[in-house]
Design brief:
239 residues; Rossmann fold; 7 helices; 27% strand; globular
Length: 239
């Protein structure tokens, strides 16, 4: 049976049972980490259930367009936006990002390219179509879309597994992007990072801002760094 219960955050709830992209730690950390300004117009590539635009709207933005190739995901994102307090500034689109053109450039583009480790058999085909990999949307095509839709001084923020990030950054340099910020995400204290949040821009960086983030302690409990980072988003994480 499909679990149709909403996922609750501190200031909004959202359904994610029909989307190819469920609520997960990768997207939550990216949404919290990505920097925003009040005047920012934001584009989310591969929005899934619409989590990233909702998290970014909580910080204060001008508006956001959320694009997904999967129809059910785009519709679910639209419903989640309509149920939120930011319904007037969040817009979901069922579209191929390679052909998407809203008539504007974006100050911030975000993306959580999915690399699935476990998923139900019934969702496998749709999820594979939504993957931002060589199977559907290559790194080169994702970067090309970001380059085409970004303002000259805009930011492109995304999360990737550490191994894939090396190939991605090589492609990014070839398309004129430069790494400005990165968060190395460690799943358990003492282990190596397995994910990386990256912020790229079209201007060279004088210095790359790097930080390390640890999710859990060796006993499985969340670190204070994790709970402090998300206390304004997650229920039950405040003091």
């Amino acid at each position: 049976m499909t679990d149709a219960r909403p996922f609750h955050f501190l200031h909004f709830s959202l359904f994610h049972h029909r989307s190819t992209m469920k609520v997960g730690t990768d997207a939550i950390l990216l949404g919290r980490w990505a920097s925003t300004l009040p005047a920012d117009w934001i584009l989310d590539i591969g929005t899934g259930c619409g989590l990233l635009p909702l998290m970014l709207a909580q910080k204060g933005i001008a508006a956001a367009d959320a694009v997904d190739l999967d129809a059910a995901s785009a519709h679910e994102a639209a419903e989640n936006f309509a149920a939120s307090q930011w319904r007037s500034i969040l817009h979901a689109h069922h579209f191929d990002i390679r052909m998407f053109d809203s008539g504007r450039k974006y100050d911030l583009i975000v993306s959580n390219p999915p690399f699935f480790t476990d998923f139900s058999k019934s969702m496998a085909e749709r999820k594979n179509k939504a993957r931002h990999t060589e199977d559907n949307l290559s790194f080169s095509e994702l970067l090309n879309a970001a380059h085409r839709l970004l303002t000259p001084d805009g930011r492109f923020a995304l999360v990737l597994p550490c191994l894939e990030s090396k190939r991605f950054l090589k492609e990014a340099r070839q398309q004129g992007f430069h790494l400005h910020r990165q968060m190395l995400i460690v799943p358990i204290e003492g282990e190596e990072p397995n994910r990386i949040n990256m912020e790229l821009r079209l201007q060279p960086a004088q210095q790359i801002e790097t930080e390390s983030f640890v999710i859990r302690k060796t006993d499985g409990a969340f670190t204070k760094q994790y709970t402090d980072f998300l206390k304004n988003y997650y229920l039950g994480m405040g003091d």
